[in-house]
Each structure stands twice: as structure tokens, then as C-alpha cells.
Design a protein that fits this description.
The complex is a heterodimer.
Chain A lengths: L3 E6 L2 H18 L3 H20 L4 E10 L2 E10 L7 H4 L13 H7 L3 E7 L3 E9 L1
Antiparallel strand pairs in A: 1-2, 2-3, 3-5, 4-5
Helix pairs in contact in A: 1-2, 2-4
Chain B lengths: L5 E4 L2 E5 L6 H17 L4 E5 L8 H16 L3 E5 L3 H10 L7 E3 L2 H13 L11
Parallel strand pairs in B: 2-3, 3-4, 4-5
Antiparallel strand pairs in B: 1-2
Helix pairs in contact in B: 1-2
Classes of the chains: A alpha+beta, B alpha/beta.
Chain lengths: ~130, ~130
């Protein structure tokens, strides 16, 4: 399996594929079951955001080996309308999409590192990393 | 079209979710289940999620919606068989499934439904509503 690959995130079925590939990567890295479940769930939330709020985009999966440390980094990118107020978007329960508003904040809690870049009109990029 | 089967067991309906659910399948399940509750006059719904490797906020919302819709139709929902790793992740995600009753397995879920029916109610008060 490649250490760095990018998958399309355009349809509901792509979310299922992203979940499956993230799971395979997590197993390969040696994540335990709870760690696998957390990163796959976070990926599912962010993939859905990419479609619902960003109008579709891509997911980049990178297996990391940093000295003795192994990890998985996921980057979700879209060219959608962007997020005007990131603070607000990160609040539990805040939603513009009719969901539960747990996507971003939940994905952050399920990861070790979380980074978000967004500009109104240009799109959004969310990167999460989970270390073993 | 792909569908999740709904089995009738006496006055209860049993749904076993065994596939990686995409969004449309989840919406179809909500529709099918509410139809069947009315048609079969079901008093309870058991949703077996023991095959689900993850529950994200979308699936969580669907489960919550099914529980709320069933309640309005005078049936109670019990979610059974959640995997431990899923439970840990769900709580960390911030989703505690309020208003949804859970049991460890189908047998215990069935017991829960029977005893709440036997008490005369359909468990609305027990569900914290």
C-alpha cells in the first residue's frame, strides 16, 4: 500500500471508501482497535463535511514514520465557500448543515493534532494526525 | 435498490445493520421502519449494531431519529450490541445518544422491551421524556 495517496470525496459512497482505506492504513500502522475506530470515525466526519459544506473535494492519507513513532495524517480539502468564523464552527453543536454540529469539534477530539485553514470563497483544508 | 431487512418478531421489529451504511441507505431505513411500525402495529424496535465498526454523527443522528419517530408512533427503540471501541469513540465524539435505550445484546434488549410493555407503559417516562 502506498504511504501517500489521495482519494476523491464527492459522493456518499466515497465516504465509505475513505473509511475503509483509513481503516486499512490504521491496521497497517499497528493502531489498536480503539485507535483505529477513533481515526476512522474522525475521517468519516471530515469526509462528510467536505461534501456537505465544501461541495466535494479530496482526502489525502499519509502514513508517517518519524523516528520510532508511527502515525497517520489525513488532509481533507475542498474548494467550497470556506468558513467565515472558524472559532464558531469548532463549537460543539454549531451547525449550518442541519446535522448535529459535531463534525469538526468531534474530529478534533478524536485526533492528536488538528489544523484547519479556511478562507471565505477559497475553500477549507483540515488536517488531523493520530500517533500510535 | 439496496435495503436493510426488517424482521418481525411478535410485537417487535428487529433490524440488524450489517453493512457499512451510506447516507441513502440510512434514510431508506428510517422510512421503511416507520412504515413497518404502523403496518405491523409494532410496540418495539430492536436495532442490532453489533456489526458496525464505527458510528459517526450521521449514523448517531439516524439512530436518534428512529428512536424519536418510534416513540411518536407508540413504539420503543432499543439499540443493542454496540462494540466497546464504538462506545468509547462515540462518547469522545460528543454523542451520547440521549433518549436512546441500549442493551448489550438482542436477548437483553428483548427483555427490556417486554418488561417495559408489561409495566403498562411503553417506556416513555423511562426514556427520560
Amino acid at each position: 500500500m502506498p504511504d501517500d495517496e489521495t482519494l476523491p470525496v464527492r459522493s456518499s459512497n466515497d465516504i465509505v471508501v475513505v473509511r475503509q482505506v483509513v481503516r486499512m492504513r490504521a491496521v497497517e500502522i499497528g493502531f489498536n482497535l480503539v485507535e483505529q475506530t477513533k481515526i476512522v470515525t474522525a475521517a468519516s466526519e471530515l469526509a462528510r463535511n467536505t461534501i456537505d459544506h465544501g461541495g466535494g473535494g479530496s482526502a489525502r492519507l499519509q502514513s508517517l514514520r518519524n523516528g520510532g513513532r508511527a502515525g497517520l495524517r489525513l488532509t481533507f480539502e475542498d474548494k467550497g465557500p470556506g468558513i467565515p468564523d472558524i472559532e464558531l464552527a469548532l463549537k460543539d453543536g454549531y451547525t449550518t448543515g442541519g446535522g448535529l454540529g459535531l463534525g469538526l469539534s468531534g474530529a478534533r477530539r478524536l485526533s492528536n493534532e488538528f489544523e484547519i485553514q479556511s478562507r471565505p470563497g477559497e475553500g477549507t483544508r483540515v488536517t488531523i494526525t493520530r500517533w500510535k | 435498490m439496496e435495503r436493510i431487512p426488517i424482521l418481525k418478531m411478535n410485537e417487535f421489529l428487529l433490524v440488524s445493520i450489517q453493512v457499512d451504511m451510506h447516507d441513502r441507505l440510512a434514510m431508506t431505513l428510517q422510512d421503511d421502519l416507520t412504515d413497518r411500525i404502523v403496518r405491523d402495529r409494532a410496540r418495539g424496535v430492536l436495532i442490532d449494531i453489533s456489526s458496525l465498526e464505527i458510528v459517526d454523527s450521521f449514523i448517531g443522528r439516524m439512530i436518534g431519529n428512529i428512536a424519536a419517530m418510534s416513540r411518536v408512533l407508540d413504539a420503543e427503540t432499543v439499540v443493542v450490541g454496540m462494540r466497546p471501541a464504538v462506545a468509547i469513540t462515540l462518547v469522545e465524539l460528543g454523542l451520547a445518544l440521549p433518549g436512546v435505550r441500549t442493551s448489550l445484546n438482542v436477548d437483553k434488549g428483548m427483555e427490556l422491551l417486554r418488561s417495559s410493555l408489561a409495566r403498562g407503559g411503553n417506556g416513555h417516562r423511562d426514556a427520560g421524556r
